[in-house]
């Protein structure tokens, strides 16, 4: 019996009695769930069932395990954050290349796709200006602007197609050029893209302004500024608007020279118009000229150095209008800006004589207007070239001689002998100044050099 008690006592030494030591809820007092359960156990009677105690124990163990896992994850994320903040330079060196230096402004923007327009660039004077933003029109907008291409709004017909007058929603009057179908003009896509590409690059007071385009299915439409007073050819034929006196014709010549000079020298990229002619010169109500129709225009060579023949011209298919075509370009298919200079020389003869470049109804020796005018000029009969509707005055004769001299230099058979368009501008300024000075001198009464009676009395 005593041995059994001793064995029981030795066994009880390993198992804590329920009455001795801290209670279970005190050992797990840090757990909120157990603390709450322990609080309730202290307030309840000691007759709670043992199954309820075991459930509370397991629940508190789960809460403790969840909180421990969350604490470990938070500690890991904090360690990673500290390690990243401790070495940012190393990460930058290994993951990010050094930023490239911005290129210095070159003064001209680069092309950005077929219809790309840069956000801004420096013009010829070096001033930064925002480039003109064009629009892509929908067919619904075009039909609304032109009243479904109403025949009453048709204002012209050309090689590109029909031209209609339209009105945009904001009230702006525009000219809507509707291209011919591919069956009628197989090159319509090339001409359309060329015109849009060129006009999106340029903006000048003597050039027709570009508003936008439409390319949808078989439709190719270009929307440009509406110039209300017709073409120069219509005015020279005396079938539209006010008669052009010689002073106005000189102003028109200067406007065209400024526009072509801008295309050659001051645009985004050198541009060769290839179709300078009187029917492509539009006149405003104040008789200021605007150059239009860039369907044949072509980008020239930028930065061609002297002695570099391969960089001074563009070899391309011959485009243009008979009577205005540069003969050297016609023979060699080599296009330069001097081809525009030749066409401009023909235009000057046209302004002086009011004749078309090719007069099919005249006798053979007068059919080619430029050749006939040159022959009369060399023979000393330049007055025969002057438009018969213009008054023949000493000022007109002087201006005519200077104008024809410039025109024949522009039409030189060798392109290197022709002046640049900037030189043509300066020469035309001199012609206009001479003409105005002589007109003013003719109007001002001349003072006599003979002494009057009062002067004799003083002597």
UniProtKB/TrEMBL annotation:
Record-stated family: Belongs to the protein kinase superfamily.
Biased composition (Low complexity): 41-53
PANTHER family linked to this entry: OS01G0750732 PROTEIN, PROTEIN KINASE DOMAIN-CONTAINING PROTEIN
A Pfam family per the record: Pkinase
Stretch list, region Disordered: 1-53, 72-117
Protein name: Protein kinase domain-containing protein
Superkingdom of origin organism: Eukaryota
Amino acids binding ATP: 177
This protein's UniProt keywords: ATP-binding, Kinase, Nucleotide-binding, Serine/threonine-protein kinase, Transferase
InterPro entries reported for this sequence: Kinase-like_dom_sf, Prot_kinase_dom, Protein_kinase_ATP_BS, Ser/Thr_kinase_AS
Residue intervals of the Protein kinase domain: 149-459
SMART domains: S_TKc
Species lineage: Eukaryota, Viridiplantae, Streptophyta, Embryophyta, Tracheophyta
Molecular function via GO: ATP binding; protein serine/threonine kinase activity
């Amino acid at each position: 019996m005593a041995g059994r008690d001793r064995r029981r006592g030795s066994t009880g030494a390993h198992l804590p009695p329920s009455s001795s030591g801290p209670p279970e809820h005190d050992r797990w007092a840090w757990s909120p769930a157990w603390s709450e359960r322990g609080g309730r156990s202290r307030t309840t009677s000691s007759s709670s069932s043992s199954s309820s105690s075991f459930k509370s124990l397991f629940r508190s163990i789960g809460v403790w395990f969840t909180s421990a896992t969350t604490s470990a994850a938070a500690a890991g994320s904090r360690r990673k954050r500290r390690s990243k903040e401790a070495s940012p330079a190393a990460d930058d060196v290994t993951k990010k290349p050094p930023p490239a230096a911005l290129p210095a402004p070159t003064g001209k923007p680069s092309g950005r796709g077929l219809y790309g327009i840069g956000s801004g660039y420096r013009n010829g004077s070096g001033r930064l200006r925002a480039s003109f933003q064009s629009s892509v029109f929908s067919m619904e907008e075009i039909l609304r602007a032109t009243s479904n291409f109403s025949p009453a709004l048709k204002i012209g017909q050309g090689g590109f197609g029909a031209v209609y007058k339209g009105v945009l929603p904001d009230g702006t009057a525009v000219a809507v050029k509707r291209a011919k179908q591919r069956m009628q003009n197989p090159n319509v896509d090339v001409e359309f893209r060329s015109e849009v590409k060129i006009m999106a690059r340029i903006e000048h007071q003597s050039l027709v302004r570009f508003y936008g385009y439409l390319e949808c299915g078989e439709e190719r439409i270009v929307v440009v500024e509406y110039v209300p007073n017709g073409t120069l050819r219509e005015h020279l034929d005396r079938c539209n608007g006010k008669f052009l006196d010689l002073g106005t014709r000189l102003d028109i010549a200067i406007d065209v020279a400024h526009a072509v000079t801008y295309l050659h020298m001051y645009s985004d990229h050198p541009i060769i118009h290839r179709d300078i002619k009187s029917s492509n010169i539009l006149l405003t109500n104040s008789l200021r000229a605007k150059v239009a129709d860039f369907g044949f225009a072509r980008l020239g060579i930028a930065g061609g150095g002297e002695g570099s023949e391969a960089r001074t011209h563009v070899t391309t298919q011959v485009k243009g209008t008979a009577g205005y075509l540069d003969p050297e370009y016609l023979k060699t298919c080599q296009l330069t800006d001097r081809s525009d200079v030749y066409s401009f020389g023909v235009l000057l003869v046209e302004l002086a004589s009011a004749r078309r470049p090719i007069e099919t109804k005249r006798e053979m020796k007068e059919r080619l207007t430029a050749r006939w005018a040159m022959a009369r000029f060399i023979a000393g009969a330049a007055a025969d070239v002057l438009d018969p509707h213009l008054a023949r005055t000493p000022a007109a004769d002087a201006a005519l001689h200077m104008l024809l001299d410039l025109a024949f230099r522009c039409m030189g058979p060798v392109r290197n002998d022709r002046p640049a368009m900037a030189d043509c501008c300066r020469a035309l300024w001199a012609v206009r100044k001479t003409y105005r000075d002589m007109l003013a001198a003719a109007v001002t009464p001349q003072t006599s050099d003979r002494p009057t009676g009062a002067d004799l009395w003083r002597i």
